Amino acid sequence: MNAVLLTSAYLPPVHYFTKLYAAPHIYMECYDHFVKQTYRNRCVIAGPDGPLTLTLPVEHGDKAARPCTRDIRLSSHGNWPHLHRTALRSAYEGSPYFEYYADDLLPLYDRSWSFLVDFNEALTEVLLGLLDLHPDIRPTSAYADAVALGADDFRETIRPKIPFTDDPAFTPKPYYQIFSARTGFLPNLSMVDLLFNMGPESRLVLRDSVF
Q: Which of 32, 67, 194, 206 could serve as a FRET partner for 132 with CA atoms 20 to 30 Å apart?
């Protein structure tokens, strides 16, 4: 696999994490224009009735401008930290590894965050630590030219509305999910789904999902 170019993402999906697992270098883009309805501020977890989307409310500032993702602020209105923390607990407290990992992840929702990218980065760092993964992540200093970097560009292709089947390098390996008897296997959910259900074996699932 070549180096890859990714954008900031909230509790990213398994597809995203296979790039962090397999790529020799990761360039993390934060100077892209913020796009709604992407993984930049939303994730998908498993609920008892199927996929459940959690969206971080953000403030867009000047409506006439197209803000960079790095400038997007998390909304101070509403009680979204409590709602997201409660949703994660409700979805996964019965999963095999929730009690082992929840205390590393959920306290981040109790801290005060101003910028979306900072919150995303903190969550991703915790997930990588729990996976014992240490990828070479290099933040960009301006909007990146993927060709000049020699990187495969996934900034706009790893997103909810684009089928992951469009990427021939990713085939999600099925794994145990707590609600699978009701919903069947749900592929490419947030990495928290894989981690809470499979624990240390999550790395093997990532490995076997890369082609």
A: 32
Q: Running DSSP on this structure, what letter comes out for residue 201?
A: G
Distance CA(104)–CA(61), nearest Å, equals 32
State what percent of residues in the chain have pLDDT above 90. 92
Query: Considering only CA atoms, which of 61, 53, 59, 56 is closest in space to residue 41?
Result: 56
Q: How far is residue 80's CA from residue 55's CA, in Å, rounded to a whole number? A: 9
Radius of gyration over every alpha carbon of the chain, rounded to an integer in angstroms: 16
End-to-end CA separation in angstroms for the chain: 9
CB atoms inside a 10 Å sphere around CB 185: 14
- 61 pLDDT above the threshold of 70: no
Integer Cα distance of 29 and 39 in angstroms: 13
Token reading at 204: 């093997």
DSSP lists the bridge partners of residue 152 as 4
Q: String of b and e for 124-150 (b: at least 16 CB within 10 Å)?
A: bebbbebbeeebebeebeeebebeebe
Contact 131, 202 (CB under 8 A): yes
pLDDT at 64 over 70: no
Whole-number Å distance between alpha carbons of 91 and 74: 24
Residue 151 neighbours by CB under 8 Å, 6+ apart: 2, 3, 4, 5, 25, 27, 144
Cα separation, 136 vs 2, in Å, equals 13
